[in-house]
């Protein structure tokens, strides 16, 4: 799930474009503060890395990661400070907590570099193990 899609045009800017491995497509949020992405995994996973590629000028200066097991409330895992660049950014140390086993992960983009609060993500990857 995502917080919003630019002009509700899911065909051109929908969430599926973060995972299609195409450099031509992206998820583009609508304007507003605190955009977010929630990932519900089909089975429990142990997360170790987050890969994200923004469009420069439409990135987030501050990302909050929250996670939980099925049936539980989200708890804060980590805070990330991405760069405002087009390159893939990899967070090796994003999950420095003892328990990183999750069924759900929420990434909140707290502070957009875009004046209107839009976020553009070309690639989002979560690495780990089952």
TrEMBL record:
<dbReference type="InterPro" id="IPR008979">
    <property type="entry name" value="Galactose-bd-like_sf"/>
</dbReference>
<protein>
    <recommendedName>
        <fullName>Nuclear receptor 2C2-associated protein</fullName>
    </recommendedName>
</protein>
<keyword id="KW-0675">Receptor</keyword>
<comment type="similarity">
    <text>Belongs to the NR2C2AP family.</text>
</comment>
<keyword id="KW-0539">Nucleus</keyword>
<dbReference type="GO" id="GO:0005634">
    <property type="term" value="C:nucleus"/>
</dbReference>
């Amino acid at each position: 799930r995502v917080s919003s899609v630019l002009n509700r045009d899911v065909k051109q800017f929908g969430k599926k474009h973060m995972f299609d491995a195409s450099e031509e497509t992206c998820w583009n949020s609508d304007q507003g503060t605190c955009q977010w992405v929630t990932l519900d995994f089909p089975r429990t996973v142990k997360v170790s890395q987050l890969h994200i590629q923004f469009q420069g000028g439409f990135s987030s200066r501050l990302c909050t990661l929250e996670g939980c097991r099925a049936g539980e409330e989200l708890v804060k895992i980590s805070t990330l400070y991405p760069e405002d660049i087009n390159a893939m950014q990899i967070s090796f140390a994003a999950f420095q907590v003892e328990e990183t086993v999750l069924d759900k992960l929420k990434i909140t983009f707290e502070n957009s570099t875009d004046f209107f609060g839009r976020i553009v993500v070309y690639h989002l990857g979560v690495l780990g193990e089952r």
